[in-house]
Specification:
Two copies of one chain form a homodimer. By secondary structure, chain A is α/β, with parallel strands linked by helices. The first copy, chain A, is about 30% helix and about 25% strand. Chain A starts with 11 loop residues before the first helix and ends with a strand. At the A-B interface, helix 1, strand 8, strand 9, helix 8 and strand 16 of A face helix 1, strand 8, strand 9, helix 8 and strand 16 of B. Chains A, B: This is Long-chain fatty acid--CoA ligase.
């Protein structure tokens, strides 16, 4: 028996049609530093068609890659829409990667055209000569393009380009499984790996952002993606907001706390998304200037690294803003789990559940497995590597790289943790950072969390280092606060009250700062390498 | 370039997995007349597996049809889940259809097994001998099965059947485009026509019910589908509620206003769905008994026929309950449009927008076309037939019936109306009921709405009848309230203040009641036939 339903493809073009018709009067606002500029989805739709015409004229055909090197702004949004809807593939370049990584990525993806914000022109110009397949650079905004021209590439202005084109484009019929966009992981091990999103996966992920159990975006909202459009699709907020017909507020490059508070106060978004660091900065800024008002926000999505409960509590109690922790990665589009308690849960337990990475939104399935790949129970106690699957989870990397990350239809996330009976996921470590001591696992992150709770400690990173007897043992690299004083012995005693005895590090080093990756996470690979090179002065403390 | 995303099918089984694991402790409540019985999704999952084992044992294989003749209760839910998830096709029989229609439908669909609530056993027994392909009847609940046994079919008890089976079932991998469920239209013209939903369409429709701009169901909710599971999938609420991990409250056959109020007061659902008649009864009942509390409801979905603004206002002002009008049909799964105003709209305009059929939820696209199929502008003025398309809209009928309803990838809904610039659809008539007078269209529904506003009128139906000069002219069939008195001349003068002159009916008939279809709509075909047979005494009034 055949289904009688229409064979209707889920595409970015369908989101574009919906937003530009039913919600055509809703606005897109972009920060300009000294103010804001506004447009509507109807106008964005016209510019998107102009841009598609321009890209065709520049020779973009088939599924060629169209790259961006841009902040969150309305022009970036038109590339987000035009490239996939015309059948090409959007490739967002992460401006925070090294020049070498950017060149590797752009060359592997064979990018043809790059859109660049003029505020990033110097940074792109430095790497442009290494971008072998790029023939054209499209400069967005005013300013001197001389540095870009030096590369020998064709350099065009976005505004000029659009001014010559028609606001009608004959959008092609596309297979929903065809490539829509690609994004590279910013993994610290080896070269970045490409994830290629399909129209289908992007559409379904957008629906998930509109679902109440997801971000819950509806046309009553105004959404502020602070998380960059060059990294993990700004958590799907641009497409999701357009699908919902909500207003979109874009901070461009003005992402310091003061600018963000000004933006929130004047543009009154109801939903925002950013990493904890940003909200921490905003909180500190609000403490110094308590008259400011961010209460238009009803919900703030927060992820990228673990969200401190104290941050969530401060926002809720002082500013009436709910922070919802979420977890995901480039490979998961990224919305995978979201931490919100069910109704009728006592207040104390609510905070415990909100401190987890959350539970899978419908569409995503999660499980934990042991070293041998055996599935462990979701009992809140068993610890293993998190695996996920679903229609917006990647099943391979571009060009088949790193096949070991995929098994039996599941993505091996490289995150280690546990799942409770109601699906709440608590991640305790990256698999590569877990310290394997005598066959048992020690969580480096839990040790770090306890260490930073010590009043003298500013930062602390814990890594596994080789040990003759136990294979690996923890090394703690600690940054002491200005003017504070503490010994390894004292810190070890501090920890002894908080973790099991065999977790206590014997090796301690005091450093000026913890090395970080391009996205601001602790660079544990570098710490381990420095330790192997004897670059650290290590104090050994045993009982 | 290939997408790297997982090839993950959207299936009912995926909804089942999500609800029974992540939301396994949420409850399903069924009314029993003198109380309520409760179970959990975890238990529903176990029963669903038992049922799938039982159906396999009864020989259900491949995509054979499994029919239900049931109210909204937990057993019906297990058939909703088991049949599609095992690869079979759920076929919900509409108990309100005539015996002839039920036999036609079950035979055309080649139903193998029928589940029947014992409270409906007598009704099914009457038609059972005509169900040629049905070999087994599964009786749900207690009571004498003798009448069913008389048919010569095998008769089994649901509870006995499940008690013998394992709570594990090896669910097959299914193509998301395979058939999951079927439902017949209850059209008054010709035989009912079959719509075959796919797993994909059911899954996407469920997501739409979870989307904020849809029903907005999340795991904070408790959902009461009063709209029957035997008609248009109870508006997708059973699957949608499970996908959301919300509680489900099922009224079984106890759908009188008093029982519903009792249910709402004690079980405290937050979302409910029913046709206007039901809410009208509830409103009248609450007027007589103002101490009752239905304020647990935050949102009530209402559709199936136009929702009077007065009903919405009463619910909101007296009971704090929002009624949201929606429009859809069996062919649209059914959620297609939903009437909710954008933010920042003045209060007066809000009611005007809420009185429309609403605008398309993302996924559904709508347009109006004229007699020749030319697309008309969405300008709020042009009137034409509504066409819709999308991933949960049907593209044909089972066995290719009534091909004229489908053109160019769009479903011709048979509804006539207009669309405004923001997508709000206002339906004024069924295409077959529009009165075509001298090349122009007169809306029968608008005339009816004005007539029932007259204090002496209880009901009024207007149909087009043949006219020598104008091709068609309106005939008004009016039911006068008990004790009231009014003449055709007076009603015509009443209308003259409200519609354009050439709409005024010349032909009037006063009747005891307006004939209705099986689903309670005015049966205009019968009215026209009775008029043609001179069965009505017609008063002619001209100026």
């Amino acid at each position: 028996m055949q289904s009688t339903m229409q064979d209707f493809p889920l595409t970015i073009a369908a989101i574009l049609r919906h937003a530009t018709t039913v919600h055509g009067d809703r606005t897109v606002t972009t920060a300009t530093g000294d103010g804001f500029r506004h447009t509507t989805y109807r106008e964005i739709g016209a510019d998107t068609a102009r841009l598609a015409n321009a890209l065709r004229r520049l020779g973009i055909a088939g599924d060629q890659r169209v790259a961006t090197f841009m902040w969150n702004n309305q022009e970036h949004l038109t590339v987000y829409l035009a490239a996939p809807s015309m059948g090409a593939v959007l490739h967002t370049l992460n401006i925070r990667l090294s020049a070498e990584q950017i060149a590797f990525i752009a060359n592997e993806a064979q990018d043809q055209v790059v859109f660049v914000d003029m505020s990033l022109a110097a940074q792109l110009a430095a790497v442009l000569p290494s971008l072998e397949t790029v023939h054209t650079v499209i400069a967005v905004g005013d300013g001197d393009v001389a540095a870009l021209v030096e590369s020998g590439k064709t350099v065009l202005r976005y505004a000029d380009l659009l001014s010559r084109e028609s606001a009608d484009f004959d959008w092609p019929a596309l297979d929903e499984n065809s490539a829509a966009a690609m994004c590279y992981t910013s993994g610290t091990t080896g070269n970045p790996k490409g994830v290629v999103y399909s129209h289908r996966s992007s559409y379904l992920h957008s629906m998930a952002t509109n679902v109440v159990n997801g971000f819950g975006i509806g046309f009553g909202d105004s959404v502020l993606p602070i998380v960059p459009m060059f990294h993990a699709n700004a958590w799907g907020l641009p497409y999701g907001t357009m699908m919902a017909g909500a207003d979109l507020v874009l901070p461009d490059r003005f992402m310091d706390a003061k600018s963000l508070i000004q933006l929130i106060e004047t543009q009154r978004p109801t939903v925002a998304g950013a990493v904890p660091t940003i909200w921490n900065d905003v909180m500190n800024c609000l403490e110094k200037d308590p008259g400011r008002d961010i209460s238009s926000l009803r919900m703030v999505a927060c992820g990228g690294s673990a969200v401190p409960v104290s941050l969530m509590q401060t926002f809720e109690e002082r500013h009436g803003v709910q922070i919802r922790q979420l977890w995901g990665m480039t490979e998961t589009s990224p919305l995978a789990t979201l931490a919100w308690p069910p109704p009728n849960v006592p207040r104390e337990q609510q905070w415990a559940l909100r401190a987890t990475q959350g539970r899978p939104v419908c569409g995503v399935e999660a499980r934990i497995v042991d070293d041998q790949g055996a599935v462990l129970p979701s009992d809140g106690e068993s610890v293993g590597e998190l695996e996920v699957r679903g229609p917006w989870i990647t099943g391979s990397y571009y060009l088949g790289r790193d096949e070991a990350k995929f098994a039996d239809g599941w993505l091996r996330t490289g995150d280690v943790g546990r799942i409770d009976a109601l699906g709440y996921v608590t991640l305790t470590d990256r698999a590569k950072d877990v310290i394997k001591s005598g066959g048992e696992w020690i969580s480096s992150v839990e040790l770090e969390n306890h260490l930073v709770a010590h009043p003298a400690v500013l930062e602390a990173a814990v890594v596994g280092v080789p040990d003759e007897r136990w294979q690996e043992r923890p090394l703690a690299a600690v940054v002491i606060k200005d003017g504070a004083d503490v010994t390894a012995q004292e810190l070890r005693e501090f920890l002894a009250d908080r973790v099991v005895r065999w977790w206590l590090p014997e090796r301690w080093t005091f450093v000026d700062e913890v090395p970080r990756t391009s996205v601001g996470k602790y660079d544990k690979k570098t710490i381990r390498a420095r330790h192997a090179d004897n670059a650290y002065e290590v104090t050994e403390v045993r009982d």
